[in-house]
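Suppose a colleague, Dr. K., hands you the sequence of a protein chain of 415 amino acids and asks what its three-dimensional shape might be. Before reaching for any lab equipment, you can write down a predicted structure in token form. Begin with the sequence itself:
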Amino acid sequence: MFTESGEGQVNALFEHATEGIILANAAGKIVLINPAAARLFEYERDELLGAAIEVLIPSRFHDKHEGYRNDFIKKPTNRSMGHGRDLFARTKNGREFPVEVSLSHYRRQEETFVIAFIVDITERKRAEQELLARKTQLEQITADMRKLNAELESKVEERTLILREALHELERSQQELSEALNKEKELNEIKSRFVSMASHEFRTPLSTILSSAALIGRYTQGEEQEKRDKHIKRIKDSVRHLNILLEDFLSLGKLEEGRISAEFASFDVPAFQAEVVDEIKGILKEGQSIETTYTGASAFSTDSRLLKNILINLLGNASKFSGDHAVIKLTVDNTGQSLQVVVTDQGVGISEEDQQHLFSTFFRGKNVTNIEGTGLGLHIVKRYVELLQGSIGLTSRLDEGTVVTVSIPDAGGKK
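The predicted structure, expressed as tokens, is then:
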């Protein structure tokens, strides 16, 4: 079953998402809708629950949409934002506006449910029209200048200078236009990757929770406690996975907004190391263990909260990408000037080709796509290390394991 914090964070993600999210059943009836979607369509949430999804679509598209919907239910496939035909939505008072829609699906108790992520792209369409108008205007200026040059052959040198200046301005404007379009395309690709990844990663644990919760109710006899315990464990594991996903998303958001800063203070490192190892034991696989080594003085000054997040993430990765009964090594050396932390595993390893991209957002190695994860962990670790004014390095070989080295300078009197 959900923990209180896990359920609260999942509800917060749904309730406070900036994109509209709608869950509909196979009959096209709205089952759930978040506040962002209700505001987008200018309805109260209760007005839409149980209503047909076509109420949010201009009437001229109803017949075709019902056919598209039926075809989707027969053969459901995920669709990311920015793909497919131009789409329009309709508010309660009849106002139409352009949208992008990402579709995902899952099955529960032999019934198909469709999840739609909806974004209002009115401003983007307006910006695209303005950019096209500028391009047309610039093309017209170029044509006019060429005509003027032909008509004033007697002043070739003077007009040539004017033409060169105009062409230079045209090239500069076209470069600005190209840069703006490329930036827009990059932002759309990042959003599409995020929505597609989030939809995929959340669907699996949510489906597990729903199915296990439904099955628990069938085991009512005392001798079936073992079966109930099995499904309760599945629910707890899925909630733990959701918590990890949410922590990654929330940490990345805070980092991007500049809301995380380092607060330096002295602390006892051996006790800190033991606390981290004790906390990580709860997520180790069967038979896995952590072998620790510590050298140097006990006291060190840095932000222990950020350092703890770094170690939890690195040890969690070492566990996740290693097999059962594996030994993970955590070595800490306090030189007095810096804290040298080394995490070593004997897991699946990382190819040389993938190593150069490991600290990028949403990147995952080709050999671990079947293992759960967001592709944000090492990016967040690197950002935390930078906040502590430290450095991070990694060496790895496929099927032989990975060694991650973090060096953090002593903050001394910094506050």
